[in-house]
Amino acid sequence: MTKKNNSEYRKKGKNHNKSEKKYVARGSRKEGGKSKGKHAANDSRKRSQKTVTVEVTCSGLTNDGKGIVQWEGKQLEVAHLMPGETAEVNISKKGRFFDTELKRVIKPSEDRANLSRSSYYEGVGCQIQHMNEHAQKRFKQKIIDELMKPFGKPEPIITMELPFYYRNKNVMTFGLNKKRQIICGLYAENTHQIIPMERSIIHDQKADEIIQTIKGMMKSFKMQPYNEDTGKGFLRHVLVRVGKKSGEIMVVLIAASPMFKGSNNFVKALRKAHPEITTILLNVNNRDTSMVLGKQEKVLFGKGTITDTLCGLKFDISAKSFYQINPVQTEKLYTKAIEMAELTGKETVVDAYCGIGTIGLIASKKAGKVIGVESNNDAVRDAIHNSKRNGVKNARFYQGDAGKFMVKMAARGEKADVVIMDPPRSGSDEAFLSSVVKLQPKRVVYVSCNPVTQARDLKYLVKNGYEVDGIQPVDMFPQTVHVEAVTKLVLKGSR
Ligand SMILES: C[S@@+](CC[C@H](N)C(=O)[O-])C[C@H]1O[C@@H](n2cnc3c(N)ncnc32)[C@H](O)[C@@H]1O
């Protein structure tokens, strides 16, 4: 179903600032009724052979934040519609599915957000920004409560006081529209179609500005956006990372080729427009992939990294290393995770999937020894550097697969008192989890940005000797459907 096409995403409706007009959500049911005449008779207006406009009432929400509606015996999903709301919706048949598009909310919910920020309304990736803070909180709490039901009752989600402009990393993709004008934006859900956008209520505003400057410079520098279909062109994406506390800014130009003609002049012009930029890199990604960054990297200006501060420690961050995107909420998450670890100063702590070493280094002050493991080479190099930079003497970092590393630790009969694990969205694996069971740490603190895979992994640990002793959701991604949670497990009989 994924369509690779770099052309401008077709927007339905004329006024693109109106949230109701921008979203196309795929209906969840195959076609049931066949009679088009019946549709025409029941519907207020027939837009085309396959599109009808109907009035519907929303009865609930999917876990993707879409409104559930019933239409002609079918259950459909409508983006940006809330329970209790009545709305006009366009429904069109796409093969065996139905696409829905919210046209107009007739009776809005009391929980609908005040979109006075509509000039910033650039909805891609902000699936629930039409919900006010109470509705967002309820939505996320319900998801986590349901998924964690077998393990206990989660605490109330820790929300963010000012849930806007929090992201420290923006990535925009470049392409050409049908008029062959340069556009940049985000991919529409499950596609490679670029929805042009200039800013978002969750992006760092300076980062958005820099990306727009780059877009504006491209023509005069004869820089073509890359076309995935033809393999021609140069610039694929721009990544901007901001140290929210340090003010340092990294710009990464992700190109299809290392041949960057006029790079010196480009860098000079960009720095002139934005003297606040502290480093600029060229990253080369010539693979047919949906991964943004390639392996090859060249520093064009500055030191190639930026520094940021978290929980009182300074961290250097490379372009390819993972770094939590919401530093305000990260401090709350880490504080909770370290509290759950119940460190007394003696413990051997494994920081698995450690990234640039943030959790382990912050925990090191309260631990006997920290062992970090991470698969990304650059992140491990950053972690070792960050350890030295912060004068931490009791932490060691290793590059490798966390599962294999733990299997070796278990085989060597090594000891771990606490395992803190923070795997990617896909969760952990059996090699890792079975080694945890062999190593028998007294506590496991599981940080996760995907409660579905977290619940799966908790089930394994609970089946094999652990019990859940606390679940704390943290809203790391306001305005979006994503939910983060940290869970404490204790070895049965160890207390
Ligand atoms: C969600 S991030 C957490 C990083 C870090 N704990 C933090 O808070 O910044 C997950 C990390 O796991 C790493 N990773 C992914 N798969 C891995 C594996 N099989 N073994 C070790 N590390 C892995 C990624 O490179 C990434 O740095």
Automatic annotation (TrEMBL):
InterPro entries: MeTrfase_TrmA_AS, MeTrfase_TrmA_CS, NA-bd_OB-fold, SAM-dependent_MTases_sf, U5_MeTrfase_fam. It holds the Pfam family tRNA_U5-meth_tr. The keyword S-adenosyl-L-methionine applies. Residues 1-10, 17-46 have a biased composition (Basic and acidic residues). Residues 1-52 are annotated as: Disordered. One of its GO terms (molecular function) is methyltransferase activity. Its EC number is 2.1.1.190. One of its GO terms (biological process) is methylation. Keywords: Methyltransferase, S-adenosyl-L-methionine, Transferase. S-adenosyl-L-methionine binds at residues 324, 353, 374, 422. CDD domains: AdoMet_MTases. The active site is at residue 449. Belongs to the class I-like SAM-binding methyltransferase superfamily. RNA M5U methyltransferase family. This is 23S rRNA (Uracil1939-C5)-methyltransferase. It comes from Virgibacillus litoralis.
